[in-house]
Structures are given as structure tokens and as C-alpha cells.
TrEMBL record:
GO terms for cellular component: cytoplasm. It comes from the Eukaryota. One of its GO terms (biological process) is D-ribose metabolic process. Gene3D superfamilies: 3.30.70.260, 3.40.50.1360. CDD domains: RPI_A. The lineage of its organism: Eukaryota, Metazoa, Chordata, Craniata, Vertebrata. This is Ribose-5-phosphate isomerase. SUPFAM superfamilies: D-ribose-5-phosphate isomerase (RpiA), lid domain, NagB/RpiA/CoA transferase-like. NCBIfam families: PRK00702.1, rpiA. It catalyses: aldehydo-D-ribose 5-phosphate = D-ribulose 5-phosphate.
Amino acid sequence: MTLRTRSRLGGISRLLAPLSARLRKHVFQCRFCDCSTTMAEEAKKLAAYAAVNNHIQHNHVVGVGSGSTIVYAVDRLAERVRQEKLNIVCIPTSFQARQLVLQNGLCLSDLDRYPELDVVIDGADEVDASLTLIKGGGGCLTQEKIVAGCAKQFIVIADYRKDSKMLGQQWKKGVPVEVIPMAHVPVSRAIVRRFGGEVVLRMAVSKAGPVVTDNSNFILDWKFECAQNWKEVNTAIKMIPGVVETGLFVDMAKRVYFGMQDGSVKTRDCPIH
Ligand SMILES: O=C(CO)[C@H](O)[C@H](O)COP(=O)(O)O
């Protein structure tokens, strides 16, 4: 770092001194380094902590979602269980969630023993104005939807980048659709014929060939062209032979917590729950 840069940084640090530590960290990092990741991580944590603080109680059966945001929720859940001696049973939505529950020393169970959950907390790839979600960026949509469907309350946690008026504004990778492997070509063709857009088979990153889900299926990503009636689209895609589940979660979420860039948490409630 040159002397000139050092003195510029010093001047800016003094200017930022009255700001809160968190905001100062953001502004500082935003200006001088690739901090968007740090901000998003902080936002995920804010949303996750708020949801666990507000929705988890003693004796709850809790569904544990999948993805990177849920990691913060499980951290906070484990902390509360230790500090408040809460009796909590966790139902995972994926292999990853199962590992998280075990690694954090939480009580692991399943839908056979607990088919009715008090609350499910999970992330999302995009949330629109009426709390319709796109999920499945991590490929866990089927178990996530099953577990969410068994819950009295389905609570979503996300950072500010997932907040959208209409699906497709923020999330550009399309709607994930889990399919039986032998059906991936006919299902892709049927979706494009009926709804337009483009369907791609999701490929693995450090393995040759496609992503294989926890249920041994494939994932299609449907890049849709325009806004749709998502309830109808979800039902229609589910009716195509070979489709296991879609990543459209319609009328399921009760509340979403968005961690925001300024360190606040914004909530949005579903009008019908
Ligand atoms: O649906 C999911 C996995 O299938 C995740 O909940 C969703 O992709 C959000 O993930 P992240 O918290 O990493 O942004």
C-alpha cells in the first residue's frame, strides 16, 4: 500500500468513526475491496438470527432448510438450545441439513416420527411480492417442499439480493425442476412447448455429468421468458410424467426475513396466512 493510499484510508476511517461498527465495516469494505460477499453473508446472518429468535420455542419440532443461509440459523438454534436448555427436535430437508444438525449436536429426527412440524426455516433463491418463492438453487427442492408442507409455519430467510417484485427480476438461473433421470428430455421438451423459454440439464461442477439430487434424480433449470400465473404453472409442470417436484413454492411461506445492506432486517408477511 502506498503512503498516499494509506493517508486516504486514514482520512476516510476518521470520517466513518461516528458510524456503527457494522456499518463502518460495510462502507469501508464496499469502497476498497470486493466486499459484496461479506455484506451478503452478514445479511444472511441477520435474517437467520431474527427468524430463530422470533419463531423457535421450547418443545418445537423444527424443519431445517438447506443452503448457505440456513447455516447461520442452525448456529443460532444450537446456541439457543445450549443457553436456554430448549428441547428441540430437528427434521432435515437434505443431506446437508442432516449434517448440519448432527455437527451442531442437535436432536435429529424424521417425518415418520414427527409428521407435523411447528416451524420450518429455510432459504430461498428469490421471493416475490406475494411470497411466491423460487427454491432449489442447491438442488434440495423436493425434500424442502415436503418438509415445508408439513409445517404450521414456513419461515424464509434471505439476504437483500433475493427480494423481488416479480420472479425473474433477481434470480436469473430459472425455476429448478427435479425429474426422474430417464424423463429429462421429454420433460424439457414439454415445458418449452407449453411455456416457452429454455430448459437446461444442471451439470455437476466437480464430477462429469449431471447433478444428482439426494433422491437420485436430475435437476432441470427452466429459464422462463416472462411473468406467469405461478400457481397454474406449478400445477401444470407437476402433471408432466417424470416430474418429481418444482422449485416454485406458491402460498406456502408465512413470513420472509430479509437481511438488508444497512444492517436492518425487513420482513414481509403472506396476506393469506
Ligand atoms: O432452495 C435451496 C436449496 O435447494 C436453498 O434454500 C436456496 O438455494 C437458497 O440458498 P442460499 O441460502 O445458499 O442462498
